[in-house]
Amino acid sequence: PFYTWVDKHTCIACGVCGATASGVFDYDDEGLAYVKLDNNNGTTPVPIKDEEDFIDAFESCPTESIKKLTLPNR
Ligand code: SF4
Fold first, then answer.
1. Quick one: which H or E segment has residue 68?
2. CATH match for 3-69 among 3.40.47.10, 3.30.430.20, 1.10.1670.10, 3.30.70.20
3. How far apart, in whole angstroms, are the C-alpha atoms of residue 70 and residue 74?
4. pTM score, two decimals?
5. Transport among the record's keywords (predicted)?
6. How far apart are CA 30 and CA 16, in angstroms?
């Protein structure tokens, strides 16, 4: 499984991740991305059905703000 969170300090609100993996990412009021699965905590596994889209988003983020973990964040 994958766990993920977004570093909002480096996200530039480009909109790619939510368009690519709408099941995983959403945006706050400033357009900065966060993981909607677990309020950006990185503790809920990415659903199997969203894994491919998640990898696409991870690889497409222009600022490497999407963190990909194989264990829950803690
Ligand atoms: Fe932010 Fe990266 Fe998502 Fe763009 S793709 S909104 S920079 S996290």
1. strand 66-69
2. 3.30.70.20
3. 12
4. 0.96
5. yes
6. 15
Q: Atom 1 in ligand 1: which residue has the minimum CA distance?
A: 11
Name which residue sits closest to atom 7 of ligand 1, judged by CA: 11
Q: Which residue has the least CA distance to atom 2 on ligand 1?
A: 61
What are 22-55's pLDDT values in tens digits?
999 999 999 999 999 999 999 999 999 999 999 9
ipTM of the complex: 0.99
